[in-house]
Amino acid sequence: MQKNCIYLDNNATTKVDPQVVEAMLPYLTDFYGNPSSMHTFGGQLAKGVKTAREQLATLLGADESEIVYTSCGTEGDNAAIRAALLAQPEKRHIITTQVEHPAVLNVCKQLETQGYSVTYLSVNNQGQLDLNELEASLTGKTALVSIMYANNETGTVFPIEQIGLRVKEHGALFHVDAVQVVGKIPLNMKTSTIDILTLSGHKLHAPKGIGALYVRRGVRFRPLLLGGHQERGRRAGTENVPGIIGLGKAAELELLHLEEATKRERRLRDRLEKTLLATIPDCVVNGDPTQRLPNTTNIGFKYIEGEAILLLLNKFGICASSGSACTSGSLEPSHVLRAMGLPYTTLHGSIRFSLSRYTTETEIDQVIEVMPGIVERLRALSPFKNDDAGWLQGQSLVTSH
Ligand SMILES: Cc1ncc(COP(=O)(O)O)c(C=O)c1O
Q1: In this structure, which residue's CA is closest to atom 8 in ligand 1?
Q2: Which of 78, 179, 196 to mutate to test the pocket of ligand 1 (most atoms within 8 A of CB)?
Q3: Residue 139: left (phi > 0), alpha (psi -120 to 50), or beta?
Q4: What residues are labeled active site?
Q5: Are the CB atoms for 142 and 170 separated by under 8 Å?
Q6: Can you tell me the distance from the alpha carbon of 292 to that of 316, in angstroms, rounded to the nearest whole number?
Q7: 156 Cβ below 6 A of ligand 1
Q8: Are 89 and 197 contained in the same domain?
Q9: 336 and 153 Cβ atoms separated by less than 8 Å
Q10: Ligand 1 contact, 200 CB (< 6 A)
């Protein structure tokens, strides 16, 4: 990473907090034993792991016995879905949404080839669900409802507890991918309807390679990985001790900073968003304007390509992201923005800025300063400026090969 980069891509990953690094270091040097060993050396690690588990459980309002460590959010989502289905083999219906992360969507797609039926709930143009559609889809055969807490691309937050109440009425298990939410919205599993929750360390200033599941006590959980008895038989494999210690410290720090950081990030995000909307013509915010993560804004700049904006931002040392994946010469717009039914004119020119507690006023000022020039420059080159019909035609050519 460039040393002086302005990092506004925190929904992709976050900077590891120096205090987290400090907490982890002894476990990468002196305390290298295996926490399952019988000797005192191993036992010292087990104590550290226990403390870390308590720190994470406290952030979630959960009991430490309800935490199962994983390697990442993707493993957590895979394990949660498989576990929920194995626990109720007689039920073969799953409900999810069209806007989930691929870690959920691709598992569901594979399950469809294995005899499961999957309902993919639609969203409106603000990325919100229709709870009537959920009600109508739930049946006694529904084994699992897997719905994200907040969307990684738009930040739209779903009404998870309202959803959970409906899910419970039908006796299905409720899995929530909260990878983008832990540390950004206060959670209390004691009063929640969630049965299984996924989180990932690298989204909350812990390192990559560590994640966790919250599994409500009493929920039957069949492990994805079979082997030793680690994690009370729920996830085999020698523990990633430094990662667990780091995630524990990160959880403690999130709890400490949550209220203050959330306020600050919301204020900076709103300033960025309002100023860009006021100074740049033809741009719109994608997502729910009120039910949204405090750190995220996704803005569609009409008539230009998101990738081109990113390249120019990069020249100014600004890191953001677009929802498009550039594959084999074709520009595939984000499945999330497509599910929202956004017009082509905004679909291709959407940029996500995602802040963290490290984001400064000066950094936001710099983005505000450079963005109008970047958009103007690209629009000057765009043959489709102010020409929706031409843009549509041009896009269909680009995406058809
Ligand atoms: C909502 C959501 N779920 C799951 C994941 C996957 O997490 P990981 O990168 O830890 O595998 C991500 C990562 O971006 C995410 O945003």
Answers
A1: 73
A2: 179
A3: beta
A4: 326
A5: yes
A6: 28
A7: no
A8: yes
A9: yes
A10: yes
Measured on CA atoms in the order 40, 45, 47, 50, is the torsion positive or negative?
negative
CB 353 within 8 A of CB 320: yes
Range(s) of the domain holding residue 300: 6-10+259-399
- What distance in angstroms lies between residue 101's CA and the mean position of ligand 1's atoms? 7
Q: Is 201 in the pocket of ligand 1 (CB under 6 A)?
A: no
Pocket test for ligand 1, best of 104, 146, 180, 334 (most atoms within 8 A of CB): 180
Does the CB atom of residue 14 touch ligand 1 within 6 A? Answer: no
* pLDDT tens, residue by residue, 92-104: 999 999 999 999 9
Contact by Cβ (8 Å): 249, 113: no
The finding on whether 74 has its CB within 6 A of some atom of ligand 1 is yes
* Domain CATH number, residue 299: 3.90.1150.10
Helix (H) / strand (E) containing 84: helix 73-87
Domain co-membership, 247 together with 275: no
Q: What is the pLDDT of residues 369-386, one digit of tens each?
A: 999 999 999 999 887 665
Are both 65 and 173 inside the same structural domain?
yes
Residue 390 pLDDT > 70: no
Query: Are 155 and 268 within one domain?
Result: no
Alpha-helical (H) ranges within 240-386 are 241-279, 306-315, 335-339, 344-347, 361-381
